[in-house]
Amino acid sequence: MRRRMNRLAKAAVGALLLIAVIAGAATWIQSYRARQAERTAAVERDLRARTETEKRRAEDEKNRAEDEKNRAEREMYYAKISLAEKRIEEMRYDQARELLAACPKQHRNWEWGRLQWLCNLDLITLKGHAGPLSSVAFSPDRKRLATGSWDNTAIVWDSLPWRDEDLPGDASMSYDDRIQLYKIEQWQKRQEEEGKSKK
């Protein structure tokens, strides 16, 4: 009987040890899986953080490039405006118009509109000489115009297309082959504007 009890006790201890080993193994496996899941989650978090950082960096670079492009366009715009103003002072209106037309629309402001207005005050523009003009004169009734040019030619313009109420107040010579004619009030406005710009 005692032997039997010893065997039962040993069997019970063996069973308890086996249960303890199995429980320990199960706990270790669970712990290992938890650590692996935590590592995987940490790698995924790190990857997401890197992706977000790279995305923000790319957006910052794009914004910087856009700002730089806008700054360069604005500087070019103001350079063209300045050059157009000089061309207007030199009465080279075609060149001023070309410069103004080349200005990007998103940067055009009041200064662009003012110069555009100054370029288009003429009642009519006449072309006929092959070289720059040297002289312009009206007849006493202001219905005819005589022009002289560096190309050694003179032209009398006697069929000018305007009505009596639109008779020009003055003429402007340009450094190319054009003559610009203005109504009196337009000429006065141009003189006032050019006087303001020189102050």
Structural summary, described in words:
This protein is an alpha+beta fold. The model has no long low-confidence stretch (mean pLDDT 77). The chain is rod-shaped. Helix content is 61%, strand content 16%. α1 (2-89) packs antiparallel against α2 (93-101), α1 packs parallel to α3 and α2 (93-101) runs antiparallel to α3. The protein has a domain at 122-199. The termini are far apart.
Over all CA atoms, what is the radius of gyration?
Answer: 45 Å
- By DSSP, the count of extended strands is 6
**Broad structural category:** alpha+beta
| Largest sheet data | 3 strands, antiparallel
Which strand order spans the largest sheet, edge to edge or round the barrel? Answer: 1-6-5
Averaged pLDDT: 77
Distance between the termini: 129 Å
Q: Label the overall shape.
A: rod-shaped
Content of β-strand:
15-25%
Task: Label this structure with key terms.
single chain, 61% helix, alpha+beta, 4 helices, 199 residues
